[in-house]
Amino acid sequence: MNKKQKRLLRDIVISAALLTAAFVTDRLLAAAWYARLALYLPAYLPVALPVLRKAALNLKNGQMLDENFLMAIATVGAMALCEFPEAVFVMLFYQVGEWFEGMAVAKSRRSIGELMEIRPETATVLRDGQERKIPPEDAVIGDILLIRAGEKIPLDGVVTEGRSALNTAALTGENAPREVGVGDSVVSGCINLQGVLRVRVQRLYEDSTVAKILELVENSAAVKSRSETFITRFARVYTPAVVGLAVAISVLPPLFVGAWSDWIHRGLIMLVVSCPCALVLSVPLTFFGGIGGASRSGILVKGSEFLEKLAQMDCLALDKTGTLTKGEFRVLQTVGDQEALRLAASLEAFSEHPIAQSLKRAYNGELLPARNIQELSGLGMTGEIDGEKVLVGARRLMERYGVAVPDDTLPGTSVYAARGGKWIGTVLIGDTLKDTARAAMRVLREQGVRDLVMLTGDTLPAAEAVAREAGISTFRAQLLPQDKVQAVEDLLKTHNVTGFVGDGINDAPVLARADVGIAMGAFGSDAAIEAADVVLMRDDPLLIASARRIAVRTKRIVTENIVCAIAVKVLVLLLAAFNLAGMGAAIFADVGVLVLAVLNALRALKRE
Amino acid sequence: MKKVFRLEDLDCAACAAKMECAVKKLDGVKDASVSFMRQSMMIEADDDVFDGVVEQAAKVCKKIEPDCVIKR
User: Fold this and answer.
1) What's the mean pLDDT when you consider all of chain A?
2) Same domain for A341 and A370?
3) Are the C-beta atoms of residues A11 and A95 closer than 8 Å to each other?
4) Residue A31: CB partners within 8 Å, gap ≥ 6?
5) What pLDDT score was predicted for residue B63?
6) In terms of domains, do A174 and A303 share one?
């Protein structure tokens, strides 16, 4: 509770106590109106003064439809009609609502505040053998940072000395520490848990992950959802309309039937109901809670609009490599002579290519001594083993040397091996599906994402194998990056809301083109953070499902709140018009709805 | 230029919506957004008129919510 809230709570308690005392005395005495006014005024003033002050200021500025002004008119009007307890009760309850609202907003804001704690205050750099504490903004590329246990990594860089475990929870929502050693890249915002690390700065502070994330979080409110726009528009019409109605009902009927004070009383009740704040607040509060809850689960959402679209998404296009698959190559099988793997490994031992690495990992036996080794970029390797010419590589390498190879439609990348001008076998290399990919696709489909479409630059058989394994029925293969944009555009035409999820490498235009661009594993990739609407901080496909679940829940709460608040307001308006509801009932209903809406909104904060 | 300002003591969600609406209508403002939850206002305007626009926006906001202060 801040100072303002404490003061308000104090005033509420004082006022409530005085109201009770005044009410009891009033019952016992049955005094004249001026005595009763004197009795109730001390209870009224503590809660009413701030409202009356603002009402006066607003009146001066011509803001007649401000809620302070409306509440002031309603309560002062009630006083004028000698409805003293009612006037105090209304003001008291109005302030209870305000207090409650303030607490809820603060709670919701704190959830984002936690994320803001990733901001590093200082960086310790080693310059000329001296330790210096400087603002992270002043560090330059190549500086050596000294990071002790318990300190935050201030800028992105690479470890040059030391081993440690990092707490990445603030960024990823993941509690398991991440082990790092010399040569590993580290990301700003993580906390060093043990030992001293030396890190060479690779990015300036403004380009570092932490700065990008903070920028994203700070700007995320600028893009507003349709629900939010709807409710503010509604409020712009609602308040003047109800105030107009209140004036009409206070003046018109009594012109014909008399009973002025009765009709004015009905009008004042309507003024109480006309306050729009509960309605206007509940929508952004809920979305904010949803965004906060998502960020605590390692999902950054750039604005309530995208949370809303995520909830409405009926089609999701997925990139293959790095999104559904791990992006690590491994040997799937060897076709033909098993010796092919041995030959391939023996030659590829001299290459640093990722495919070569996977061959080396797959073959555990003794390598054959090879001579005259040559690496032909993009084609493969040639060499001599036991005096015979050996070729290992792509189909085009075999064609160049006139080696006939069997046609195949194997899923994956084929590495052909030939000895003495003859094909002996093919090693098939493929990417591994992520452990949770299949489960994630199933959950997404259960959540109502009707179409899942895989887009890949890979060959048809490779795409088909991954799609089948992941449980995706639709896929498009051999797409160049610009083809992927076209593919997403096609999907946009036939679906309401189309999302795209990619790893952020090479697919920024696609991320930007989709209704909802989701970047996966943006941990350290600032390009993805910029291009995407939703950023998943972990490389886990299940996080897409989590994001969807949070979005759907948030959207549902928003709808519940809008419907409930409008329904209650309309009901009370009708009751007031027919003299069936008192002013007390009106404010009670109003604050009651506010409390319900706020409690409901806070559910959106829940972490996945 | 696009800049985000903090708003202090912005206490009412409906006022925030009114401010956004009013600032958007100001001459020279390309886009504006007020977030009650974040207590912030984003203003986008051309560089050469930016300071004047912010001045105008501050005045308009003061009218709608007298206690609210724009931190520059």
Assistant:
1) 86
2) yes
3) yes
4) A39
5) 86
6) no
